[in-house]
Amino acid sequence: MRIARWTGDGATVSEGFVIGDRVAPFPEGLTVAEVLARGLAEAHALFAAVQEADGAALADARLLAPLVPASIRDFVAFEEHVEGVSASVDGKSEVVPEWYQAPTFYFTNPHTVLGPDEVLRPPVSARLDFELEVATVIGGAGGANLTADEAAGVIFGYTIMNDWSARDLQSREMKVRLGPAKGKDFGTSLGPWIVTADEFEPFLDDDGFLAVRAEVFVNDERIGHDLVSNMGWPFPELVAYASRNSRVVPGDVLGSGTTGNGGCLAELWGRRGELTPPPLTEGDTVRMAVEGIGELIGPVGAAVAAPELPAARERSRARSRGERVAQ
Which of 15, 93, 187, 325 has the fewest beta carbons under 10 Å from its own? Predict the structure, then answer.
């Protein structure tokens, strides 16, 4: 099953199933968020109720991001990506021992999500980049402190994720031992729809990894390609780790992290020691294709200059209002 959100008239948002070459709204006006909360079994029952409906032509629908995420966690689960991109962002090519100990992630901004074909308006950056990822979407009851087997049961489906990145901003802020923040949170593209987890059972290898092909193109030139099964951990283990001493809930999005073998430009910059291929600029189009899901296209628009803020001011470090500290 494919689940999507779309608009046909530019104003009204519809939510439902993509069935072949048509779209059909959920019964009873349900939303994607409500269907995710009901879980995969209920989604199948809803699909059975509308699969013969006429619906509307998919070609006439403008697809939106397939959900409004409750949160977005983005992992860094591909060793090859870490090895290559560290030279570009941190100035040293390495995979630190700590990477192997647990599947690290950061939280990114659910309020700047873009849908298929939606134009990215990036910050001013000399090193604008994409990141090719597959993301899992949580459904059902969610949970806390899940085992990997329990976590597999709350994976509702998968979508393509492009974690847009301004590498120059990212490099600066991560030197402060925190982040990424402004190097990332201006845009994350999701889409074109959510494909339910049961559709991927034929792609699971013996260790539970999702062996699907992923490719990325810039202006129709293939930049990178990889198997998603090259992750260090399968998706259920990512979900289980996210739930540790915490919770995952329906609508949470968990990105795989960037694939290897050219899943982003920064990996290639780090390996080659030069900005080849060049950073993204206005007018570029990034197209991501993932086996079993489809394609996610992201056009790059004009950069948006943000208001200037001053640098930190030197302070006296006084411990009370009346105290003076010798400089």
Answer: 325
